[in-house]
Amino acid sequence: MLSVQQVTGGYAGAPVVKNISFEVKKGELFGILGPNGSGKTTILKMLSGILPHKSGDIVIKGKTLSKYTPKELAKIIAVLPQHSSQAFSYTVKETVSLGRYAHQKGWFQSWSNKDEEAVNRVMEQTGISQFQDDDIQQLSGGERQRVFLAQALAQEPEILLLDEPTNHLDLSYQKELLDLLSVWSKDCGLTVISIFHDLNLAGLYCDRLLLLENGEVNIDHVPNEVLKEGRIREVYRTKIEKLPHPRVPAPQMVLVPERAQAKSRQLKRIDQDSFEIREGLIILRSPFPLKTMSSGVTGSGTGWNRIFLNRHVSKNYDCSDHRAEMAEFVQEIGFEPGETVGMMTAVYVEDHSSKFFEEETFSVYVVVTAGVGNAVDASKSEEHSYHLTPGTINTWIFVNGNLTEEAFIQCIMTATEAKTRALYDQKVKDTVTGTIATGTSTDSILIAATQKGENLEYAGTITPLGKVIGKGVYECTVEAIKNSQRRIKK
Fold first, then answer.
1. Could you read off the pLDDT of 44-94 as tens digits, one per residue?
2. In this structure, what DSSP letter does residue 386 have?
3. Whole-number Å distance between alpha carbons of 164 and 149
């Protein structure tokens, strides 16, 4: 659809862009990224024919840009600039109707039903029909932006050029606009070329990205390849980290404030001094948020949390709405569910076991509550009937160190292996199958890290961190099981 071949150009003096080459296919949503001054807007102006290029070729539908008349080009390319302005006091509909000029033989002397339908359709699609008779000067910045987008779409172009299309739009309209552009590109074959300052929106919606640096192409590739930590840090000269989007397969970049980096260098640790036990409740309070991965009733998944609860409930506890009930309980005792990992256990929390392990460059605090009343052999779990019950073996692991994502997962693996060995050595059996149990049907786990101090890349069973976790979880699980069994025998 569009090919840029070794294009150099800009304004008077030195060229802004140098030897730029890329291609955009029909129906692609193509994003252009780069710091201020890297040449993003210059490229867009050259593609639209507003700014001539000094050398190279811009080819549109197999024909060089220079061979198109302005009106011919307007039937193919529509432009939404970064800062649209309106000198005259037109109504919204009149402004949108100006987009049909390329299809007119005279100055709106041949206005047809097709023109009217096109204008009404794009006003509806961009959500501006309700104020089509209003003076455009009376609209907010976001509303005005949508009017000029509708004007561009009224041209019924094959290529749409946008310079920061979500500028001035609130979150809901940003999403609506980009969802709409995505539908037009995929379902209608509209080719969309857009400048983005927001890397995350670009990563979510674009098929490919062009990253510019000092007027040259740094990379032209799919979002996951372009949005790499090292590359973005180098091009944008700032501290940034890459994370996967929680719902869709798209990369997301997060800024790391300097204040957060300074705080991370202040060494603090979680140990038994942070631990408190009340009747039927274990509480650990951190003076700062910990990065967590857990299967708690509240705070499940990954996040940042300060409060950690393990709550005793009856074996007959009604689990029909346990998440809502647990959140209400957390609030009743003075904590916020949004910053709390909360677990339930049918065993008495007074029978817990906890140990602190100090190593040269990191430390680990392990807390376990364990009962084996509903122990299960995972290899024979199909012989059990399913019903939701309160947890029995709840394992907490607090690491005073900086864990990678890989290390978080390996912590869970190592802890699970150690717990399973503890059950084996204690000869805990699955009462249904008579075989050695590997856990209970409702075990829960928490890994929480300070993300300060020593960088701990791995936590497999024979790594320095893995050795401590394996030892700690094994010893605490054995001791907690014995404590619980002693209570039962009394």
1. 999 988 888 889 999 999 999 989 888 888 889 988 876 555 556 789 998
2. P
3. 11
DSSP 3-state assignment of 357?
strand
pLDDT digits (tens, 9 = 90+) for 359-415: 999 999 999 999 888 889 999 988 887 766 665 899 999 999 999 999 999 999 999
User: CA distances (Å), 104 to each of 49, 114, 157, in order?
Assistant: 21, 11, 14
3-class DSSP assignment, residue 240:
strand
Question: 117-162, pLDDT tens digit by residue?
Answer: 889 988 988 888 999 999 888 887 778 878 888 888 888 889 999 9
Sheet hosting strand 63-64, strand order edge to edge:
17-24, 2-9, 53-60, 63-64
Q: What is the per-residue pLDDT across 276-313, written as a single tens digit (0 to 9) for each?
A: 999 899 999 999 999 999 999 999 999 999 999 999 98
Fold assignment, 2-255? Rossmann fold (3.40.50)
Tell me how far apart the terminal alpha carbons of the chain are, to the nearest angstrom. Answer: 81
Query: 272-489: what fold?
Result: L-amino peptidase D-ALA esterase/amidase (3.60.70)
Answer yes or no: are the C-beta atoms of 42 and 51 closer than 8 Å.
yes
Report strand pairing: 363-369 vs 353-358. Answer: antiparallel
| DSSP symbols for 333-344 | TT--GGGEEEEE
What is the Cα 117 distance to its own chain's centre? 39
Q: What b-and-e string marks burial along 81-96, b requiring 16 or more CB atoms within 10 Å of the CB? A: bbebebeeebebbebb
Radius of gyration of the chain (CA): 31
Query: Residue for token digits 């710091």?
Result: 35
3-class state of residue 57 by DSSP: strand
C-beta neighbour count of 423 within 10 angstroms: 24
Residue 490: CB atoms within 10 Å? 4
The tokens of 275 are what?
């631990």
Confidence (pTM): 0.71
> 2-255 with 272-489: one CATH topology?
no
**For the chain, what are the domain ranges?**
2-255, 272-489
